[in-house]
Amino acid sequence: MATSRASSTPASGDRRVRRTQAALARALLRLVEEQDLSRITVADVAELAGVSRSTFYDHYRDVHELAEAACTAMIDNLIEALPGDFDVADPAEEATQSLEAFFASLAEHAGLYRALLGPQGSARVADHIRHRSTVAIQERLREAVEGAGVPERARAVLELPLDVPAAFTAGALIGVAAEWLRGGCPRSPAEMAALTWPLFHSLYRIEAMPPS
Predict the structure, then answer these.
(1) What global pTM score does this model have?
(2) In the chain, at which end, N or C, are there fewer CB atoms within 10 A of the end residue's CB?
(3) Could you list the pLDDT tens digit for every one of the 212 residues in the chain?
(4) Alpha helices in 33-162 (DSSP H)
């Protein structure tokens, strides 16, 4: 993930730096609700934030780097909303609630995510989201296998690489989300959760795996 210039300098802890970065992030979030990210310029963001272009460049290389920084917290929240336990007796209720929260968060900032994940969006941001999701899913798969109550025979899964199924799942989930956003969120978050969970469960029914 690209990092802002300010984050690598001692000034990163300065209140004025944090206020400026917050103002730039707010300006970007407002602009991206109104137009494609690819059409937003540094001058647009700086003007709305009430700072000069040179001040912008003190913190970020370009609008795409600002987008990554501005979306980090929201991306983390989305990842936290994903199902964390793939191997419980009756996972459907908890998991669908988690997925519903995931899609509800997307819907809340639909313009932003539509811009970031759509055809005119940022490849860097989309790749960042996929990578963060892949790492999180891979860790949760490992925790599910290592967790209490997992049959001993299922622990053989640990000998298999988890990066491929995690990347597959993350890419599929982001693809579903992007298409849903692109269509104007025609189904409710609850409907999307109900449709998505069976796909998760079919991939990660660890307890049903045969002995090695």
Answers:
(1) 0.69
(2) C
(3) 445 554 445 444 688 999 999 999 999 988 988 888 888 999 999 999 999 999 999 999 999 889 888 877 677 777 776 665 555 555 567 778 888 888 998 898 888 788 778 777 778 778 888 888 888 888 877 776 665 444 554 445 445 577 888 888 888 888 999 999 999 999 999 999 999 888 877 766 544 344 44
(4) 42-49, 53-59, 63-80, 92-108, 110-117, 123-146
